[in-house]
Specification:
Catalytic activity: 4-(trimethylamino)butanoate + 2-oxoglutarate + O2 = carnitine + succinate + CO2
Distance between the termini: 11 Å
Radius of gyration: 26 Å
Number of strands: 22
Helix content: 25-40%
CATH topology of the largest domain: Double-stranded beta-helix
InterPro entries: AlphaKG_dependent_hydroxylases, GBBH-like, GBBH-like_N, GBBH-like_N_sf, TauD-like_sf, TauD/TfdA-like
Strand order of the largest sheet: 9-10-20-13-22-11
Largest sheet: 6 strands, mixed
Oligomer: single chain
Pathway: Amine and polyamine biosynthesis; carnitine biosynthesis
Shape: elongated
Protein name: gamma-butyrobetaine dioxygenase
Pfam families: GBBH-like_N (PF06155), TauD (PF02668)
CATH class of the largest domain: Alpha Beta
Structural class: alpha+beta
């Protein structure tokens, strides 16, 4: 983005600065924003990349006293109190307020693009050791995880502890009431339906938490000979289908708060309670998180009695779409496989299998937050793409 500045001027009684670039395009910057983002050592702590200027000291009606084009690579502004600010051309260009520039910045910072899928999913696969040792491979893994929502890592050791290594590769794992990692196997007096041999219907993990884990990691250590197949479905894709097919059902599921509960003892004793919408949406009504776990949906339902049946009908339609052969993808983990997936988007389930005198199926599980994953992705991208 090595673009110089052709001209700079003030307009709207000094409330805006307009920059004309060498390619003829123009960018407008509100003066209050420019003063708020002064990059001088008095206003900005560069070692922390954090603003020092106190908001209480910001004049929201501020205007420019004087603006000058120091050279084609920066502009300088003098404010009414004689404070001086300088802004580099590249810095300004990246922060242009045009829709195109803002969309480009959103893409750069958050990778919002989704590749939707159904039963035709070609499950992305990558070698575990490659992820651990190669930055380009790790970057590709996290980019694919963000875009597709699921990636299978192959060739890990068939012992506990591989997820701790993977967590360290990202940054750190998410601690929950089930521990830093947890063992999915048939257990007597199971404190979670996952710790049985029965079928698990499509669900996201932990909607009982106010901030459910963003990414789930499941490492296959031992696999049963018969049964135990894993199933996944793209919740965003299905939510879009529901919105088109039955807008009223979508509106009900994206506006009704459902009670979730989880009580027991594991890493420590716990009594968790939360309200979630089955489909969380953004300001545009687009699904951004699915919160659906039939096992931990509470018997308490805090809505008016006359709305209960319409909610159940809407949820039934959504659940039927999740379970349709058109949308679900079935696969079977092999020992050494680690499936990594977006727990806010991808719902997962399991087919039943037979119990035995010994443990016949053993997965180790863990969680990571999207904040941690995206942090590592941005750091890896800077290294791999050699960006400033």
């Amino acid at each position: 983005m090595d673009l110089g500045i052709q001209k700079v001027e003030v307009f709207d009684a000094g409330h805006f600065v307009r920059v004309e670039w060498e390619d003829g395009n123009k960018s407008c910057y509100p003066c209050v924003w420019l003063r708020d983002n002064c990059q001088c050592p008095h206003c900005f702590l560069h070692s922390a990349r954090a603003r020092k200027l106190l908001f209480e000291d910001l004049d929201v009606n501020i205007v420019v006293k004087e603006v000058a084009l120091a050279d084609r690579k920066k502009i300088s502004i003098t404010w009414p109190d004689e404070h001086a600010s300088e802004y580099e051309a590249e810095w300004l260009k990246k922060r242009c307020f045009s829709e195109e520039a803002r969309a480009e910045m959103r893409e750069d910072l958050f990778l919002p693009e989704h590749q939707y899928w159904g039963s035709e999913l070609q499950l992305p696969k990558m070698p575990f050791e490659e992820i651990m040792s190669n930055d380009e491979s790790a970057y590709k893994w996290l980019c694919t995880l963000k875009k597709v929502g699921i990636v299978l890592l192959t060739g890990a050791a068939t012992t506990q502890g591989e997820l701790i290594k993977l967590g360290n590769r990202i940054g750190f794992l998410r601690l929950t009431f089930y521990g830093p990692t947890w063992q999915v196997q048939d257990k007597a007096d199971a404190n979670n339906v996952a710790y049985t041999t029965g079928k698990l219907c499509f669900h996201t993990d932990y909607p009982v938490l106010q901030h459910p884990p963003g990414v789930q990691l499941l490492h296959c250590i031992k696999q049963t000979a018969a049964g135990g197949e894993s199933e996944v479905v793209d919740g965003f894709h299905v939510a879009n289908k529901l919105k088109k097919q039955n807008p009223q059902a979508y509106q009900i599921l994206s506006s009704t708060t459902v009670d979730y509960t989880d009580v027991g003892v594991d890493y420590c004793d716990f009594a968790v309670q939360c309200k979630q919408r089955i489909i969380d949406v953004d300001s545009r009504g687009q699904a951004v998180r699915i919160n659906y776990n039939n096992a931990t949906r509470d018997t308490v339902f805090d809505i008016p009695v006359e709305k209960v049946r319409s909610f159940y009908k809407a949820l039934k339609e959504f659940d039927d779409l999740l379970n349709s052969t058109e949308h679900k993808f079935t696969y079977k983990l092999k020992p050494g496989d680690i499936v990594t997936f977006d727990n806010w988007r991808v719902l997962h389930g399991r087919q039943s299998y037979q119990s035995g005198s010994e443990v016949t199926r053993h997965l180790e599980g863990a969680y990571a937050d999207w904040d941690v994953v995206m942090s590592r992705l941005r750091i890896l991208r800077k290294k791999v793409l050699k960006r400033d």
